[in-house]
């Protein structure tokens, strides 16, 4: 088991926006525009921080989903009437290929959240950091696991992450409303900020010397995962206090990012209960 100690970093003492947290640029999509899929739409309607513009429901699905949407509207405090459309009209209105389950919501982007604010509101709860993971469905699935295991924020690099669109929200199955995404300019500096805040930085890497079940994961943890195939970049791996691996059969080269995240978050939750 690795001895827990934090390395001091000159870079970690940088101030202001250079510490890792910053507002997203105007060009970054914070899941504004059309959301679709029953879970994603219901979760957005139940979120009082969402500004909802238009709710559309397929006439063919109205009876089976109206109770769910009405309850979500009540919880979120939104006063918006659903436009009832033919399913073909809904298909034409939403992005091509959208699996909408008979409902769509035009909404404003979620409010931005700086890294320092996310740390303060987490109160020691776990965080997940993704190092240049770019597939929206994979990132959405990671968000879903993060919500299931009490993660308080997902940290991504602003220029090397998927846009936060309806496809990501659909894959997250409502978790986008529960686990905020924090965009930072530099992942390595963000890890320095988390370490200064008392977080133990655990990188998940197939080359890690420590098997995940043997890792010391007690206390505030930030779990860092890299892109599929490439894994953690060198500078990011060097910022981790521990590199751990998930023991798997030699017949399989690696796990899907979202599967690895779910396993690691379960282990993290198990060791902190």
What does this protein look like?
A 7-stranded parallel beta sheet has the order 7-6-5-10-8-11-9, sandwiched between helices. The chain has a 4-stranded mixed beta sheet with strand order 1-4-2-3. The protein has 2 domains: 17-23 and 112-270, Alpha/beta knot; 33-107, 60s Ribosomal Protein L30, Chain: A (2-Layer Sandwich), CATH 3.30.1330. The longest helix is centred in the first third of the chain and has 15 residues, at 62-76. Helix 5 runs parallel beside helix 6 (166-172). The two termini are 19 Å apart. Residues 5-29 have low confidence and may be disordered. Helices cover 32% and strands 18% of the residues. The protein is an alpha/beta fold. It has helices spanning 38-45, 62-76, 87-93, 115-122, 136-148, 166-172, 187-196, 234-239, 257-270; strands spanning 33-36, 52-58, 82-85, 103-107, 127-131, 154-157, 181-184, 200-204, 210-211, 221-226, 242-245. Strand 2, helix 2 and strand 3 (82-85) form a beta-alpha-beta unit.
């Amino acid at each position: 088991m690795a001895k827990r100690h934090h390395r001091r970093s000159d870079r970690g003492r940088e101030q202001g926006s250079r510490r890792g947290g910053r507002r997203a640029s105007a060009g970054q999509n914070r899941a504004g525009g059309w959301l679709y899929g029953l879970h994603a739409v219901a979760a957005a309607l139940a979120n009082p921080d969402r500004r909802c513009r238009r709710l559309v429901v397929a006439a063919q699905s109205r009876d089976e989903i109206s109770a769910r949407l009405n309850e979500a509207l009540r919880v979120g405090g939104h006063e918006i009437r659903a436009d009832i459309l033919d399913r073909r009209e809904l298909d034409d209105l939403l992005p091509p290929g959208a699996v909408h389950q008979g409902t769509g919501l035009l909404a404003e982007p979620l409010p931005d959240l700086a890294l320092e604010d996310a740390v303060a509101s987490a109160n020691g709860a776990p965080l997940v950091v993704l190092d240049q993971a770019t597939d929206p469905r994979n990132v959405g699935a990671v968000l879903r696991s993060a919500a299931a295991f009490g993660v308080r924020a997902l940290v991504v690099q602003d220029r090397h992450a998927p846009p936060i669109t309806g496809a990501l929200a659909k894959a997250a199955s409502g978790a986008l409303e529960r686990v905020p995404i924090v965009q930072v300019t530099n992942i390595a500096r963000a890890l320095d900020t988390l370490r200064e805040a008392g977080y133990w930085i655990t990188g998940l890497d197939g080359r890690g010397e420590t098997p995940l079940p043997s890792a010391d994961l007690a206390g505030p943890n930030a779990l860092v995962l890299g892109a599929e195939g490439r894994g953690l970049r060198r500078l990011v791996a060097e910022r981790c206090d521990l590199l751990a691996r998930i023991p798997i059969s030699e017949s399989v080269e690696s796990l899907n990012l979202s599967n690895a995240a779910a396993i690691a978050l379960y282990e993290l939750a198990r060791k902190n209960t």
